[in-house]
Amino acid sequence: GAPRVVVVGAGFAGATVAKYLRLWSQGRVEVTVIEPGSGFVSCPVSNLVLGGSRQIQDISRSYDVLRQHGIQMRQASVTQIDAGKRQLKLDDGTHLGYDKLVLAPGISFDYSHLNAVTGLDLQQHFLHAWKAGAQTVALKQQLQAMPDGGVFALTVPALPYRCPPGPYERACQVAYYLKQHKPRSKVLVLDANPAITSKRALFEKAWAELYPGMIEYQPVSELKQIDPAQRMVRTTFDTFRFDVLNLIPPQTAGRIALDNGLANAEGRWCDVDYVSYESKQAQHIHILGDALDSGLPKSAHIATSEAKVCASAIIDILAGQAPDPAPVFANTCYSYVSADEAMHVANVYRYDEKSREMKPAPGGGVSKQHSAGEAREARSWASNIWHDALG
Ligand code: FAD
């Protein structure tokens, strides 16, 4: 019969690999996608829901088009992988066999270092909104309920984490909302890193020009402890009071990968061969997107690019051929500094035979400064990538 590929996760990487496996094999590969969510919600542009210029519906898409490509969608979670038997167990109790497995589970959150608050479900008490959806809407409600003159504190984990410029874009969007509705309030950025990790000069300029005095930035400020009663946090060097705490915790590859022996020696992320995206830990299992220890920014643009390299490689391997030995792709990350101005950073990455990794290559660059023109390009970028993955 037709070879069967099972994809775990229908985020940016999983949706794209599933669609391109169908398109490029001309329907000769059977594709099943396992995803617990009933629809897709985009992290890119989700910070604008906090700013108020977008609604959650604007960044939500259905999985219908994937079905129209002949992909079987199963609404469930994978709970176990048996790499020897090439079989999955799902949370509805059923088992599913595969010829090739593609894992695209994104990230999980790691609260283990926050030992002080026992008995609290940190994830529910102090929202991350680092997976777009219900948490994005709930964080917006907390922002709306915050008193004027209040402090919205946002913690940034040490790299690597999903979307390096994302927290600083969020600071802009929260400040954009506060400037209009609660102008005596403040955004407090508590960054575990020694400096803004992406587009630093551009963010500093945008903060100074658009939100003077509203965004306080604290580098080398890893979150160590939380006192929920006093609404205080302790960081590496200091303590701070907050009204709303947006706790973006340290991250790992999605638990399903870690719990099934697919993490690398450090135990937090996964390693693959960057020509085929096959795991270094298990045969016939390919891993994509934010779950990888690739050294590249954890972005939707990179996740979808990897997905296409992987789809092509799997089709070649199933046909008994060698995959393209020299993949190359690009990444662009736009950040909105207000409702209608944005800026970007772009890079080209090329497979390097010596290190066997994707390495920065000539090309790309950064904006001179935020502008309305770049916001128009950012809107096109988003509708194009949504269409590429789910259209
Ligand atoms: P995801 O998109 O998270 O998909 C993972 C999927 O796997 C999920 O749907 C999940 O439900 C599913 N899953 C997990 N475990 C299981 C399981 N056991 N069984 C079945 N399914 C499972 N990137 C950009 O390129 N540009 C941007 O402007 C941008 N802005 C961002 C702004 C914010 C605020 C954030 C948080 C991120 C942003 N990103 C941006 C980053 C981008 O969202 C991620 O890099 C991207 O989503 C990674 O894709 P992925 O497929 O690896 O993971």
From TrEMBL:
Xref: InterPro entries: FAD/NAD-bd_sf, FAD/NAD-binding_dom, FAD/NAD-linked_Rdtase_dimer_sf, FCSD_central, FlavoCytC_S_DH_flav-bd, FlavoCytC_S_DH_flav-bd_sf, SQRD
Name used for this protein in its record: Sulfide dehydrogenase (Flavocytochrome c), flavoprotein subunit
Signal peptide: none
Sulfide dehydrogenase [flavocytochrome c] flavoprotein chain central domain ranges (all copies): 136-249
PANTHER family noted in UniProt: FAD-DEPENDENT PYRIDINE NUCLEOTIDE-DISULPHIDE OXIDOREDUCTASE, PTHR43755
Domain Flavocytochrome c sulphide dehydrogenase flavin-binding intervals: 325-390
One Pfam family recorded for the sequence: Pyr_redox_2
Residue ranges of the region described as Disordered: 356-379
Source species, domain of life: Bacteria
Record keywords: FAD, Flavoprotein
Domain FAD/NAD(P)-binding: 4-120
Gene Ontology MF annotations: flavin adenine dinucleotide binding; oxidoreductase activity
Entry keyword annotation includes Isomerase: no
